[in-house]
Amino acid sequence: MPIDLSEVPTHELMKEIQHRLDCGNKPDKRVILIGPPGCGKGTQSPRIKYEHCLCHLATGDMLRAAVAAKTPLGLEAKKAMDAGALVSDDIVVGLIEEATQQPECAKGFILDGFPRTVVQAKKLDEMLAKRGQGIDKVLDFVVPDALLVERVTGRWVHPGSGRSYHEKFAPPKVTGVDDITGEPLIKRKDDNADTLKARLAAFHSQTTPVIEHYAKKVVVLKADRPQDEVARSIAAALA
């Protein structure tokens, strides 16, 4: 079905056309984002995606989409999940391989949430090596644990849209309600200090070896700075 562009302002259309033309001249990049909950990856990844014309691959979203679409890998994943087992690394790498062959990944990708272990990193490297490719950069978002606890425990979310607020850093206009809909905000059950501290301990123990595995490609980002400063550091790292 044809898309009706009559309501789209001309300058917006021209901006998008120019962006796509610019994308054709961008170098390929394959980037891994590593960072604990609340580190700012979710804020920075859309900027990286747009600036470098990459696709954003979050393994949790990919798994859910594959299961819903009943793809062969999705059916394998569902079988494991229904049995209460972890989805195998081979299935996840297979999903990444399929996704990176889509047109939107032509210039490369941002991987978020994978690899979490050295075994996964090696499987990912092997898959890319078969295509004559490899990971270019690993962006390590470093934030002191104490600040992460403050960031996450103060977070409130609008369940319908996923919009998030913070009671200190980004409060809603009216306490407890979404700015746009006026609907009540909720606090996720995992957004508490005890749960977060356990998650942080697991994160550090799992990902430290992954960072060591990619040592020559890692760029450490001091991610507790203002968003624009972090963005400038990322731009320099990926230049």
Secondary structure: elements and pairs:
Elements: H1 10-23, E1 29-34, H2 41-52, E2 55-58, H3 59-69, H4 72-82, H5 89-99, E3 108-112, H6 118-129, E4 137-142, H7 145-153, E5 155-157, E6 164-166, H8 193-213, E7 218-222, H9 227-238
Parallel strand pairs: 1-3, 1-4, 2-3, 4-7
Antiparallel strand pairs: 5-6
Helix pairs in contact: 2-9, 3-4, 3-5, 4-5, 5-6, 7-8
Describe what you observe in this structure.
Keywords: Kinase, Nucleotide-binding, Transferase. One of its GO terms (molecular function) is AMP kinase activity. With 239 residues, this protein is of the alpha/beta class. The chain has a single domain, classed as Rossmann fold (3-Layer(aba) Sandwich), CATH 3.40.50.300. The protein is 47% helix and 13% strand. The chain is built from nine helices and seven strands. The protein has helices at 10-23, 41-52, 59-69, 72-82, 89-99, 118-129, 145-153, 193-213, 227-238; strands at 29-34, 55-58, 108-112, 137-142, 155-157, 164-166, 218-222. The strands form two sheets. It has a five-stranded parallel β-sheet. Strands 5-6 form a two-stranded antiparallel sheet. A hairpin with a 6-residue loop joins strand 5 and strand 6 (164-166). Helix 3 (59-69) packs across helix 5 (89-99). The longest helix is centred in the C-terminal third of the chain and has 21 residues, at 193-213. The mean pLDDT is 89.
